[in-house]
Amino acid sequence: MTNVVTDQPGARSVLITGGNRGIGLAIAKSFLANGDKVAVTYRSETELPEGILGVQADVTDAASIDAAFKEVEAAHGPVEVLVPNAGITKDTLLMRMTEDDFTSVLDANLTGAFRVIQRATKGMMKLRKGRIVMISSVSGIYGAPGQVNYSASKAGMIGIARSITRELGARGITANVIMPGVVLTDMFNEVSDDVKKKYMEDIPAARFAEPSEIANVVRWLASDEASYISGAVIPVDGGASMGH
Ligand code: NDP
C-alpha cells in the first residue's frame, strides 16, 4: 500500500475505518486534499490512491485494530482525527431477523466503532486534542423497515458521542455523529429498485447524495472551524429527516 507522509506543518494523522471504498474513500481523499496524513483500514487488498496509507483491519477483531493503529502511529504519529466509518447491513423484516443478523450488525457497526474509538482516545488524551466523527445513518433516527439491527447500531452512536463528549470534552477531544441519507455507493446498490423509489419520495432535495457531500462535512467537523461542536448529530440527507 502507498504511504506518502506529507511534510506540511500542521498535517494531522487521520484514520478512517473502511476507507478503501464508498464514503470512507471519499473522506480519505478529502483529508488528503487538505494536506493531512491519511490512513485507511481495509479488509481485502485494494488499490488505493497515491498518498493514502492502507492498513489491514477487521473492526470486529480488537487485535487487528491494535496492530493497525501501531502501523499508523509508526508512519504518521498518534491518530488525531478518527472516522469510524466501517459498516454493514443485513436487512430483513423483524419477523425474519435472526439473533445473528442482529448481533453481527451491532458488532461491526457499533461495537466496531467503540473498539477503534477506545484505542484512538489513548493517544488523543496524551495529545490533549482529538476529533472523532462517526458515520451513522439517518436510519438511526428515522428508522427503516427491515433495518431494526442497522437502525439500532446507528442510533447507538449518538450515545457513544455524547458520553465521550462528557468524559473527554475538557481534554480537547470532540465527538460528533454524521447521519447520511441515501448515498450512491456499493451499499446502496444492494437495495431493490422499489425501495430506492420509496426512499426518493422522502427526500426534499429529490436526489441521492454523492460520497463527497458526506466527506466535506466530515472534514469540516474535524477542522478548527468546528472546534466548539461536540455531541452533535448532523443529518446530511437532503432534508429527509427534518424534525426527527
Ligand atoms: P460500502 O459498503 O461501500 O463500504 C463499507 C466499508 O466498510 C468497506 O470499506 C468495508 O470493507 C468496510 N467494512 C465493513 N465491515 C467491516 C469490518 N468488519 N471491518 C472493517 N471494515 C469493514 O458502504 P458505504 O461507503 O456506503 O458506507 C460507509 C458507512 O456509511 C457505513 O457505516 C454505512 O452504514 C454508512 N451509511 C451509508 C449510506 C449509504 O446510503 N451508502 C447511508 C447512511 C450511512 P471491505 O471493502 O473490506 O468490505
Write a brief structural summary.
With 244 residues, this protein is an alpha/beta fold. It is 43% helix and 15% strand. The chain starts with 12 loop residues before the first strand and ends in an 8-residue tail after the last strand.
List the SSEs and their pairings:
Layout: E1 13-16, H1 22-33, E2 37-42, E3 52-56, H2 62-76, E4 81-83, H3 99-127, E5 130-135, H4 139-142, H5 148-168, E6 173-180, H6 186-189, H7 193-201, H8 211-221, E7 233-236
Bound molecules: NADPH dihydro-nicotinamide-adenine-dinucleotide phosphate.
EC number: 1.1.1.100
Protein name: 3-oxoacyl-ACP reductase FabG
Family: Belongs to the short-chain dehydrogenases/reductases (SDR) family.
Q: What are the main properties of this structure?
A:
43% helix, SDR_fam, 7 strands, seven-stranded parallel beta sheet, oxidoreductase, 244 residues, binds NADPH dihydro-nicotinamide-adenine-dinucleotide phosphate, single chain, 3-oxoacyl-[acyl-carrier-protein] reductase (NADPH) activity, SDR
At CATH level 2, the architecture is: 3-Layer(aba) Sandwich
Query: At the first level of CATH, what is the class?
Result: Alpha Beta
Compute the number of strand runs: 7
N to C succession of SSEs: EHEEHEHEHHEHHHE
Bound molecules: NADPH dihydro-nicotinamide-adenine-dinucleotide phosphate
Q: In order across it, which strands form the biggest sheet?
A: 3-2-1-4-5-6-7
* CA gyration radius, whole angstroms: 17 Å
Biggest beta-sheet profile: 7 strands, parallel
CATH superfamily: NAD(P)-binding Rossmann-like Domain
Mean pLDDT: 95
The number of distinct structural domains comes to: 1
Beta-strand percentage? Answer: 5-15%
Cα(first) to Cα(last) distance is 41 Å
Helix content: 40-55%
Q: Which residue ranges are poorly predicted, with pLDDT under 50 across at least 5 consecutive positions?
A: none
Oligomer class = single chain
Instruction: Give the CA-based shape.
Output: globular
Q: Helical segment tally?
A: 8
